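Box 3.1 — From sequence to structure: Tfp pilus assembly protein, ATPase PilM
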Amino acid sequence: MNLFPSKKTVNIMIQDYVIRMAASDKGTNSLTLREEPLPAGMIEDGQIVDEQKFFELMKELAESWELKKSRVQFFVPDSSVLMKPVMIPSHLKADAVNEYFMMENGQSLHFPFEDPLLDVIRLDHLAKSRTGQAETPGILFASPQEDVTAYANAFEDVKMKPVTAEVRALSIHRFLNSLELLQKDKTYLISEWSINMLNISIFSESVIDFMRYQPIETSLTDWKPERDGEEIHFSYVGDLNLYNQQLEDRIAEIERLMNFYRFSLHKGEKEIDEIILTGDNPFIREIGQKLSDYYNMPVTVADESFLDTYQKGVKGKYTALMGLLQKGAGR
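Predicted structure (token representation):
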């Protein structure tokens, strides 16, 4: 009998216009999903702008969503994440890898911001010896420490315990892979479409190979949240022609990035096999249709109607959170 059950873990995703939460109960095998719209100007480019209002909101949600004393996993702001392939001295133990690269900051590594927060993923299955010295390939992620700390402090202020900050692209890939939607020998461009940003990541042989953040110019005051029970739906009340042009520009950017990936990064030896769309953009099916019309390759829109075949009740807007939840389950 477990007399001291571990505290529950909740998973939180914060965008400029909405905060979402996912939590699971192993005992009842139940999934809890919640969301709350955010006022314009509280969060911008994924970063906290109005700390006082954000604190007040989190204080309310900690009560209504019963988050106090929970462990919390969250995402680092996508707009400031950098990714870099690195080689790791193979003799380093796991807990020494991040420290090693922190020592390299300003020497062999340079970032466009001070005080980076680093996380390195080892790719041991790709390890090989180079010039007589054993090294292990890895992927380094860097983000301004102040951006991540701002969220961690906000959670602690409402009696939550931050334990993990992850890159959203990794969580999305984890969830899609768990549904057996991805083949290991193929290269996927995974595009996460939100109302005001596009996250593009490319995974080749199950390893992230490229990542790019693209803003979608739109005023959040032109998006009206409507509550339907526990669900929040956003409707656009601005100039639809202007917004459609923004989407067209981002679609064109995908073609440029695919060509850059194929010819500049891989000298024509590697190309995209399939495009996958996910996210909460209300026009995601129309975007998927345009991509399908433009490019001679499979295009999959991982929205509710598609995901329902694999996991009931999960909408595309929760894809990243489901992957983060799976990370916590493996702790």
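Summary of the box: The first strand starts at residue 9 and ends at 14.
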